[in-house]
Predict the 3D structure of the following.
Amino acid sequence: MEYDYLYNFENDITIAKKDGWYGAIDLNNQIVIPFNLPYEDVRGFRNGRAAVKNAADMWGVIDTTGKEIVPCTSDEIIL
């Protein structure tokens, strides 16, 4: 199997985990966000945003380009 995990696609992209690293791919299996996101956990996209958890177990939010739009400073995030 090429990926450790895939979430559901939203607007033709999805979060994927490969070799222990998170990134994102499109429907053509092209990389949208490189598989080097510096997070311990990344959840699937919802409305163009994905929840991310850092090594300190704090949550934040990234957009579909991988840019952190809400810093990882929250105990929990609900999208």
